[in-house]
Amino acid sequence: MVVNMTEDDEIYYLTEVVPFFDIVLSKSHVNYPWQLSLPVTWASSMLPREAGPATLKHGGKNWTMQYIPTRTRFISKWKNFVIDNELKIGDACVFELIDPSPENLTFKVHILRDEWPPELKALDDTCGETSKSPIVID
Fold first, then answer.
1. How far is it, in rounded angstroms, from Cα 67 to Cα 113?
2. Bridge partners, residue 109, by sequence
3. pTM of the entire predicted model
4. Strand, coil or helix: 92
5. pLDDT tens digits for 67-120?
6. CB within 8 A of 28, min separation 6: which ones?
7. TF-B3 domain: from which residue to which, for each copy (predicted)?
8. Can you give the pLDDT at residue 3?
9. Is 81 helix (H, G, I), strand (E, B) or coil?
10. Within 10 A of 15 (CB to CB), how many other CB atoms are there?
């Protein structure tokens, strides 16, 4: 099977070409109160200091929501992103910062469920199977 990858499908976060943060989703991310708080230290050094629109891109679709820097979180439409992408507790999301401008704050989001990107899978197929063989990312 041949898979045609678009630019939206390419993964850069493991190469450090673009700034990113990742998060494993918990109950408050995927249920009421439907909140996603960003890592404070990362956000304060990478993101605008003004509130404004933020766009999440995934699977060829866009979700626009409000970014609030004083609380370092996305609000208002995060719930739509969760529902549309059928996110569950334990899923992981990697947010690549595509545009840090206050007028066009944009992230490309990679969703990891029970699959791993080839870059991680190639490290060792046996890692993560038991607590005695954890996955270690340097």
1. 25
2. 95
3. 0.73
4. strand
5. 888 888 887 789 999 999 999 988 999 999 999 999 999 999 999 886 656 666
6. 34, 35
7. 21-115
8. 33
9. helix
10. 8
Which one is predicted more confidently, 49 or 120? 49
- Mean pLDDT taken over the chain: 81
Q: How many CB atoms lie within 10 A of CB 78?
A: 22
Exposure b/e, 42-70, CB count within 10 A at least 16 = b: ebeeebeeeeeebbbebeeeebebebbbe
Greatest extent of the chain over all pairs of C-alpha atoms, in Å: 47
Query: What are the helix (H) ranges across 32-101?
Result: 40-46, 78-84
Kindly tell me the sign of the dihedral angle through the C-alpha atoms of 122, 23, 25, 104: negative
| Distance, CA of 81 to CA of 56 (rounded, Å) | 8
